[in-house]
């Protein structure tokens, strides 16, 4: 069922989104003089052809050179194999066994001896002195980390999404500016890769991230983080225990990423193995014994979760699929089925990238006080949703992500002060009451 609906919905929606990204200038956040550090990531997309699609044989005509020019973005989405029934748009995530400190890509403990919960991210990293800009950083880091050369003719840079700010816990201090760049694979076959040790690649269908009836519907979950690890000094055991008792845990929204036998690790030998793995996934057939052995060695059973900055950037990409022509009833709206159009109109409301990256706390009273002090934050969210519904043409000068981050964590700081004071008062009263009862009994 999903394979039949993708050519009529997701492929043209991806085309519309990439054209929007290419034609829409991103919101660039200038680095302040006090913190010039920047980073960049690569969001890589491809359209995987159906496993039974028969490609025409290469022409033997000498006048037809082998190095034909790469298709333009419009020409790419007119190719037969891209629009063939069963073609599937996919996005590349990676999992790092040892992520850099301070990122949201770290692995958390699982619930069983043979399972674990892992966080996925995009290839990328910090800008170095010799880099010629954010695009160069994203391409260099992708090559160094997974061995994929985005400078090849098989890939084309689409554009940049809005910059994002990376801050310390509760948004107190800016750490760096993050720039996400979008790339599209123009060929039906992925070039061989060579991930660094401890890194595995996961090509995930976009249908697993889009709401029904367009996609399969994202499976929402959460990632629990000990609040003391974010709010208390690392080497103060007593203060960490106190914060853990008073504040509890933080739950970040997350999307479950489907496990896949096509996961690629540093030990994957060649392109043929990648194509076989992809064919096995797309046909949903049984995996040969040799593949089962490779899977058990290279891709152990684990729960992959998309959250934090990576989730926010992914949702920024998906929001571009809710096209302005569809919203305004323009000429291009005929490309969307009526049910798909109605569903995508609600994407910014159902899963706004601004609101879906912020945590909730384990104690209900903490969330209540955040709501009490969150009037400015809710106003920012409403303004961002209005901007998205208007195709992003209004208030482009406003840093919505930064404003939401600032106002949300301002409300969190106020709420935590109130909660800690109230809890301290109750503890103090409890001690007094207990002391009075003990003295009265004497």
How would you characterize the overall build of this protein?
There is one protein chain. This protein is α+β, with helices and mostly antiparallel strands and about 450 residues long. It folds into 2 domains: about 1-225 and about 250-355, Alpha-Beta Complex (Nucleoside Triphosphate Pyrophosphohydrolase); about 365-440. Helix content is about 40%, strand content about 20%. It has 15 helices and 13 strands. The chain has helices at about 1-5, 10-25, 75, 135-145, 225-230, 235-245, 270-285, 290-300, 310-320, 325-330, 340-345, 345-350, 365-375, 375-390, 400-440, and strands spanning about 40-50, 90-95, 110, 115-120, 125, 155-160, 165, 175-185, 200-205, 220-225, 250-255, 305, 360. Strands 1, 2, 3, 4, 5, 6, 7, 8, 9, 10, 11, 12 and 13 form a 13-stranded mixed β-sheet that branches. A hairpin with a 2-residue loop joins strand 3 (about 110) and strand 4. Helix 13 packs across helix 15 (about 400-440) and helix 14 (about 375-390) runs antiparallel to helix 15. The radius of gyration is 24 Å and the shape is elongated.
Chain-wise SSE layout:
Elements: H1 2-5, H2 10-23, E1 38-48, H3 73-76, E2 88-96, E3 108-112, E4 115-121, E5 124-126, H4 134-146, E6 155-160, E7 164-167, E8 174-185, E9 199-205, E10 220-226, H5 227-231, H6 237-247, E11 249-257, H7 271-283, H8 289-298, E12 303-307, H9 308-319, H10 324-328, H11 338-344, H12 347-350, E13 360-361, H13 364-373, H14 375-389, H15 400-441
Domain Nudix hydrolase: 36-227
Protein name: Nudix hydrolase domain-containing protein
Keywords: Membrane, Transmembrane, Transmembrane helix
